[in-house]
Amino acid sequence: MNDTIEFTCPHCMHSMQIHESIRTWTCQMCGKPSTVTVEDIALEATGVEEVVKESWSLPVSNNPYASPAAVNSVDAPLTDAEAIRTRLLSHEASVKSIGALYMIGAILMVLGGIFLGGRLVVGVTDNAGSPSASFFAVLCFFWLGLGILQGATAMGIRKLQNWARYIAVVFSVIGLLGFPIGTIISAYFLYLLLSQKGTRVFSDEYKEIIAATPHIKYKTSIIVIILLILLVVILVFGALVLVLAG
Q1: What residues form DSSP beta bridges with 7?
Q2: Which has the closest alpha carbon to 182: 105, 84, 112?
Q3: What is the largest CA-CA distance in the chain?
Q4: What is the SS3 assignment for the chain?
Q5: Percent of the chain, pLDDT > 90?
Q6: Of the candidates 108, 176, 95, the residue with the CA atom closest to the CA atom of residue 143
């Protein structure tokens, strides 16, 4: 007597033989679990399609990233992509907010570089006791280069690019030296970038999930908003110190 039932995985369409005693199963090809029971598979085999559709926790559509509207149910369950996106949405929003913070810093750095370049051009450095022109030139190009790099990193973070993540980690490690506020902010950034959730958010798989769930929106984390205000205050204060010192 044959004690197995043939079924096709709704994720990757891989056909497999499932023993009748198994209540739930995991696809041998894609490794994704399912809550579709053997009883449901048996019902489908007998042609009771509507009962199967209502009892499954997975959408009937062959597309695992299909929107809820594609499922023939009033209270359609979330697809795998929607469930993952919803679970990581807060972390995604916080990570992308790092890009917003970096962009503000980049703009201020570029402005600082332009300001130093302006001082160099008008010949302020010729005054007695002021830094040499070569020092101002080096400082000008340093701020401009750093501002451009941080701006590029900000855009990369917003697009969840891994290369931008690595640069942001370097910036955050350096930022730990800015005790106490800089240390707190940078430590939080490192958590967002290097945690298990952060690694998942920057993965290629998650980018596909984002593309498949454009209807799911996020809001900026309140913690990041507070950090943004603190950063702006620090940068403005630093700019005032530079102006007054000059």
Answers
A1: 16
A2: 105
A3: 101
A4: CCCEEEEECCCCCCEEEEECCCCCEECCCCCCEECCCHHHHHHHHCCCHHHHHHHCCCCCCCCCCCCHHHCCCCCCCCCHHHHHHHHHHHHHHHHHHHHHHHHHHHHHHHHHHHHHHHHHHHCHHHCCCCCCHHHHHHHHHHHHHHHHHHHHHHHHHHCCCHHHHHHHHHHHHHHCCCCCHHHHHHHHHHHHHHCHHHHHHCCHHHHHHHHHCCCCCCCCCHHHHHHHHHHHHHHHHHHHHHHHHC
A5: 32
A6: 108
- Assess contact for 59 and 76: CB atoms under 8 A: yes
Mean pLDDT of the chain: 75
Question: Which residues are paired to 8 by β-bridges?
Answer: 15
pLDDT for the residue numbered 220: 63
> In terms of pLDDT, which residue wins out, 96 or 17?
96
- pLDDT of 112 over the 70 cut: yes
Q: What's the CA gap between 127 and 175, in Å, rounded?
A: 34
Locate tokens 């941080």: which residue?
A: 150
Radius of gyration of the chain (CA): 27
CB-count exposure of residue 201 (10 Å: 0-12, 13-18, 19+): buried
Q: What is the pLDDT of residues 64-76, one digit of tens each?
A: 545 444 444 444 5
Distance CA 114, CA 143 (A): 9
Mean pLDDT for 168-192 is 92
